[in-house]
Amino acid sequence: MEDEHFAEYLEKSLESIFRINSRTAHTLQSNDPSVVKKAIESTLPIKGKHFNELLVQFESNIAPYLNQNRGTNYAAYITGSGNPIGAIAEFIKAYFNQNGLKWNNSPIASELEQLMIRWVSDFCLLDGFKKGVLTSGGSMSNLMALHCALARKIPDREHNGFYSQKPLTVYCSEETHSSIERAMVFLGLGRKYLRKVPVDERFQIRIDLLETVITQDINEGYEPLALVGNAGTTNTGSIDDLEALATIAKKFNLWYHVDGAYGLPARRIPELHGAFEGIELADSIIVNPHKWMYVPFEASCVLVHEIPKAIHFSPNYLMTENADKRWESSEHTIELSKEFRALKIWFTLTYYGVDQLTGFIKQDIELTNYLAEQLQIHGFEVNPNHPLSILCFRYQDTKRSDSEIEVINQRLLLHIETDGRIFLTGTKINGSTYLRTYFGNPSRTRQNVDFMISTIIELLMIELQPE
Questions:
Q1: N or C: which end of the chain has fewer CB within 10 A?
Q2: What number is the average pLDDT over the span 397-425?
Q3: For position 69, what pLDDT does the model report?
Q4: Strand 131-135 to strand 300-304: parallel, antiparallel, or no bridges (unpaired)?
Q5: Given a cut of 80, is residue 132 above it in pLDDT?
Q6: What is the pLDDT of residue 155?
Q7: Is the pLDDT of residue 335 over 90?
Q8: Whole-angstrom Cα distance, residue 117 to residue 149?
């Protein structure tokens, strides 16, 4: 396709987007894999098609199955809402096709990434965390953080591995995101050596048990490596006692990592700032701009004081002049090819500004509290520990048995997914099924929340009808 057609095709694409958005009232389009597979089933195209025909096929076969993840009735996974300005940045990025595999292959991609590291750090009110990398998401960022812990603990690991090393142990709470366990697998540390410490009634890691577990491991010949704190868990939004964790990490010489992928931007809210006390003592922190900073994903950020160099060699085809004066991301991360993630962060922060984005976060929290109040009025049991914008709740009836209530909540989740007008998820708290919402959309209003509640009640009434 020649460049002169771009303006025409872009205009038609935008028209298509608006048509798609206007013709559906459903957030979740289908929960039947066979339906989706049948809609797109086709053979590899041998001859190309004109753009007009291509767009018609897209609208017919693919668009009907696009979830409205940017919509105000989406309250499921913490993917963030994205924003139109960020989408424009993504188009520009794709058009210019920048690849930050080496500094000289896209100088602006490398330099803007480092500026965005500083901007994200400043947004989260973090002094001293001006180094780091942008990654695809929290899973990759948490893996990078544990890699940094290994680099400090075993400096010669790049050449010798850690085969002669005592088994290395990592500590976190039972509420910590599963990506930490995934990182244990991919780094070769082993899930067996991840210690998941129980939590208290506020879903915070139990400090008393943590110290006991670490001491026991040392006495049994293990080598403690890292401690992971939570600054907003995925399940409930809980925030660990980060200052107490910092004290323990220092006592046992552990790399102290804080997962703030979701919750950390709320540190800008004055009433919540104290909840994150102690995070400034961490060795590494992650935050995902594609979550509560409303940037289109993928955009996650690893923040450190100093990032260790991971790869101390360069193949001949990657040799460059003045390498000592340039930031080479590929020498610090798993990736060589690297997309220009910084651009959409720059567009978002520059367009909206810190004050407006902070206002969005505050609004999400206020609407979550409103949802909790209204659900309680309608007789739902609401988890009282919801400091941020995640809420867990469930149908409750003292006249029914625990097993009956469990089945009703499970089936209610299925009804909501099948209905498709709203989209939320389920989780387990203390072994019981709860419905779970996440609010991270600046377009959401009280009217949207009221619609969500009325839909839940409508589907619950259908479930409660006698057979």
A1: C
A2: 94
A3: 86
A4: antiparallel
A5: yes
A6: 87
A7: no
A8: 20
In a domain, 36, yes or no: yes
User: Would the pLDDT of 25 be above 90?
Assistant: no
Helix axes 138-153, 179-186, angle to 10 degrees: 50
Domain count, the chain: 2
Contact 135, 301 (CB under 8 A): yes
Q: Is residue 104 part of a domain?
A: yes
d(CA 437, CA 424): 6
Q: Is residue 110 part of a domain?
A: yes
Domain assignment present for residue 19? The answer is yes
pLDDT number for residue 24: 66
Residue labelled with tokens 């992928």: 261
What is the C-alpha to C-alpha distance for residues 215 and 57, in angstroms, rounded to an integer?
62
Give the ranges where 27-137 is alpha helix by DSSP (H).
Answer: 33-40, 51-57, 84-96, 107-123
Q: Are residues 176 and 282 in the same domain?
A: yes
Q: What SS3 state is found at 319?
A: coil
Angle 361-230-295 from CA coordinates, rounded to 5°: 35
Question: How do beta strands 255-259 and 223-230 pair?
Answer: parallel
Regarding whether 162 and 53 lie in a shared domain, the answer is no
Do both 37 and 176 map to the same domain?
A: no
Residue 131: phi and psi, rounded to 5, are -120, 160
Last residue within a domain, chosen from 306, 332, 348: 348
Residue 68's CB is within 10 A of a number of other CB atoms, namely: 18
Residue 278's SS3 state is coil
- Cα–Cα distance for residue pair 412/415, rounded to 1 Å: 5
Residues in the chain: 467
At 181-202, the pLDDT tens digits run 999 999 999 999 999 999 999 9
Last residue of a domain, one of 348, 381, 416: 348
